[in-house]
Amino acid sequence: MTPEAPGPDPHQLSPEDLPTPFTAAEIREGCPPGRTLRIRIERAGEDPAIRVSRYVETDADGAVQESWTEDLDGRRLSDPERERSTWLELQEHASFPRATTERAEGELGTPAGRFACLLYTRNDPDATWRFWFARDLPGQPIRYEREASGQIAFSAILIENTA
Question: Is 70 exposed, middle or buried (0-12, 13-18, 19+ CB in 10 A)?
Answer without folding.
Answer: middle
